[in-house]
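Before a colleague's protein record goes any further, I have to sign it off. Alongside the sequence sits a line of tokens, each denoting a local backbone shape. I want your independent view on whether this chain really folds as the tokens say. Where you disagree with what is written, explain briefly why. This is what I was given:
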Amino acid sequence: MWLIIDPEECRGDELEIRGARCHHLARVCRARVGETLRAALPDGRVVRAEIHEIAADAVRARIVAEESPAGLPPCRRSLL
């Protein structure tokens, strides 16, 4: 499962997903404690994180490894 993490969802080596995204992870995707997800962080890093808590208001995961974004083409932007 992949997530793009908003800046407010990332606190050091902890991810905290709230609101509709929390509901989607917990109820629609049926995420479970111990499951691993991959996430793109606001600073451009790609990480693996292990879910350690699923509460009514938040899904919390701990970053366990950083991955190379291999296979992803560099993003190019042009300002006109």
In short: The chain has one domain: 2-67. The domain at 2-67 is CATH 2.40.240.20 (Ribosomal Protein L25; Chain P).
